[in-house]
Design goal:
Blueprint: E1 3-7, E2 13-18, E3 21-27, E4 30-32, E5 44-46, H1 48-58, E6 67-71, H2 80-102, E7 106-110, H3 112-117, H4 128-142, H5 155-171
Parallel strand pairs: 1-6, 6-7
Antiparallel strand pairs: 1-2, 2-3, 4-5
Helix pairs in contact: 1-2, 4-5
Length: about 170
């Protein structure tokens, strides 16, 4: 059974995990938003066609469709720029959901607190960057031969990998 873990957002990532291990790790593809002005806070959106191609490449036709596990995201109140950022996140989520539906994949949403707790990544005493570093270290321990987690900025890839592994342990 294949699982695709997706950390949504414009800097998000995806990871495909099968019975034989990690099949692929990728940054979510983005593209410029047509007609957006240069002063707009959000300049890019998820490239649905490119995401579809990535998933078809790592989950070829003829195999069972994967279960796509998406980190559950929501909105919170805040300043105007926070509203734009959250709108962008929900737009990204919608694009990911549409691609999953077009592929006829089962979609499961998992709260970040749920899957992160299973790896011991919930620590209120850690700063944001320290939590991301811990996720990256955890993913590297789980998949030491994965070269897609080499850089410090690969923390979103690490979260996608861990989310896919969580799904495989919970739903397989």
């Amino acid at each position: 059974m294949l699982f695709v873990g997706i950390d949504p957002g414009l800097t998000g990532a995806g990871a495909v995990l099968g019975p034989q291990g990690l099949r692929g790790v990728f940054d979510l593809p983005t593209m410029p938003i047509p007609g957006v002005g240069p002063k707009a806070l959000v300049q890019r959106k998820i490239d649905g066609r490119a995401l579809l191609d990535l998933l078809l490449k790592t989950c070829p036709a003829g195999e069972a469709r994967p279960t796509i596990v998406i980190e559950a995201v929501g909105t919170m109140g805040g300043a105007n720029n926070a509203v734009q950022t959250q709108g962008s996140l929900l737009r990204s989520l919608g694009a990911i959901e549409t691609v999953a539906e077009c592929l006829k994949c089962k979609v499961v949403y998992v709260a970040p607190q749920t899957w992160k707790r299973s790896y011991g990544l919930i620590d209120p005493n850690l700063k944001h960057t320290a939590r991301k570093t811990r996720a990256l270290e955890t993913a590297r321990r789980c998949f030491p031969s994965c070269t897609d987690l080499a850089r410090a900025k690969d923390h979103n890839r690490a979260e996608a990998v861990l989310l896919a592994r969580y799904a495989q342990m919970e739903f397989a």
